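hey so i finally got around to running both of the ones u sent me last week. sorry it took forever, my laptop kept dying halfway thru and i had to restart like 3 times lol. anyway pasting them below in the order u listed, first the sequence line then the structure token line for each. didnt double check formatting much so if smth looks off just lmk and ill redo it

first one:
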Amino acid sequence: MTRRDVAEQVVVVLGASSGIGRATALEFARRGATVVCASRGEQALRTLVEEITAAGGRAQAFRADITRVQDLQALVAAAESAHGRVDTWVTMAGVSVYGTVDDIPLEEFRRVAEVNYLGHVAAAKVAVPALERSGGGVLVGMASVEGVRSLPFHAPYTASKFAARSFYDALRVELAHAGSPVAVSTILPAGIGTPFWENSRNRTSHLTKPPPPPYAPELVADVVVRMATHPRRQAVVGGASLGFILGEKFNPGLTDVVLSLVGRRMQTSRRPDNGTDIVSTPTPGPGQVHGEHAGHLIRRDLFTTLSARLPRPGEALLALRARWAR
């Protein structure tokens, strides 16, 4: 189907206060979209909207907790009341806990699953009807390359990303079966240089870091914005993720051995943890796109470009299946 140009779209970004979500809201606004920015952090939302409007963009802030269904329903109602429709919905919200399975309490596993998996399910259940009311739109869900290959010392997060990725796959096929005009795109980033690492709850005693090499959050934002007009089944961001994906596909046992040797070192630094996290509380302060790795980020990546753009016949066939079902 023909989708509105980005400059004509109304876009909801859930989890917009920092990191990839904030970069995505800024990029949509830069390209002319009207952006409804939602998250728990009120101060971060306020500074985000101020930044967008100061640059001549259009944005609205809405405080919402992804684990509260009433917040999500109110978010949809506010977006449709103010702007008439929702064309693209991006679910970015996520939290993280690092440590061994033995060291991480069960309630923290539950909390990560509540946000990263069940929160995404709840958001999709309100987003899809809104996108259908607009005549057809795109639901973009944030998973991770850790939803393809799990990493040690990050079990709550990686398990939640496997669940989210599987959920979006199932939803995509169900919508095609029903003849829905809504497309579902899943984003699988590698290590991205955002405040995610500083904001993760940490039971390793050492500050965590993105597995090298870290990529720029703007690289992910570019891919997400492209999905709004050219949706793909999934897009992988960061060529370094190819090693994880191929290792899991062709020799998972050897990949286990490699990660048992380097898995902890590649995710932790020598610095002590700062003791802060956003697992149960909103992003503190004004919010920011980049973390402590901003000076060492990869900002261009051929693999990412190909992942987002190369034609895939199976996806075209699924779109045809949806049309036949209408």
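and the second one:
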Amino acid sequence: MGLPEKIETRLFINGEFVESSNGKTFDIINPATLELVAKVHEASEQDTDNAGSYMKKLASLIRENNDELAALEASSMGRPVGEFIDAHASAAKWDRHAEAGYSVQGTTGVQTPGFVNMTFRQPYGVVAGIIPWNVPLLFLANKLAPALIVGNTVVLKSSEKAPLTSAKIATLVQQAGFPPGVIIIITGFGNVSGSILSHHMDVRALSFTGSSRTGRLIQAAAAKSNLKQVFLELGGKSPAVVFEDADLEKAVCMANSRIYVTGGGAPSGREGYYIKPTIFKDTPEDAKIMKEEIFGPVVNINVFKSEDEVLAKANATEYGLYASVYTKDIDRAMRFAKGLEAGTVGVNCTSPVTGADMPFGGYKSSGSGREGEPLYSLDNFLETKSVLIKIS
């Protein structure tokens, strides 16, 4: 049996054969004859360390394209360019997750007589993400980065209201060199593409950010199909509680309970969707505007007399995403941090303030699962397998 006329000596990366990035090769010598059999391409550090390096490269490209991404969001969803910090925040998420893959570890146990046991943490395979319109770059990073670094392939559906930045990210994914098929980004409406992903038998886990109504539909679709794991970051209606000892100037500014605007509402002579700022005072606790989330410049201001009263009112909602308490009394602050039924509690701060080293997610109808901090977000895209090894 002779050797083939041509021996393949290149590296196989991204579904194709390529030479090493630094051009180096090493010799393969027949030990019986000492003859040179082939010169094989030597994988460089860049060739080898691709999983994290793709994500690092993408983070760099996102930063480089900040201005274009800002313009795309301004044109598709009306967000002022001056308020756009999402590219750098998104890039930081990609960087953090690129370094987090090695933190995934199993456990071992020797408490069962005659056995050595262990757990494996393994990717689902194919997972999906569905993101909203309001901060698409951040939500895209929250879905893609943790899923990819632990070994999944991802189908991501962007919002039909703001798809342009996601489409731009797709071009940067290509520039970064991700293998074909590892990331799929689609644009469509929820009742078609979102429904298909939710029902799809090959999708083993799905992460969604959006309304509680849609989250319930996705969970129902998962139950009717393959019982895929579903992680939800949904609506919120949590309050900002301001006590008499708070720094009122800072509290009312951050909590948006006092609003100053230029007279006239919408700029004169301009087209567009403008909603005048609206303040409701002493709103009945059972009113719809006190119970349901409003995406707009609308605020309810009510008063309270005691801690017990306001804590009960604060928790009298089906939502629990982000609550705040303003006080200089640290004991009171900690009592409310424990007592407020919300996934995040801000003390002397409020949304959208978050911590890069903290998970984010909701209580009750505000969702399930946590995103943001890799220690928590990686869990959304990993299955745990128990392995029992009999040794006697």
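quick thing i noticed on the 2nd:
Residues 107-234+369-389 form a domain with the Aldehyde Dehydrogenase; Chain A, domain 1 fold (CATH 3.40.605.10).
anyway thats it, ttyl
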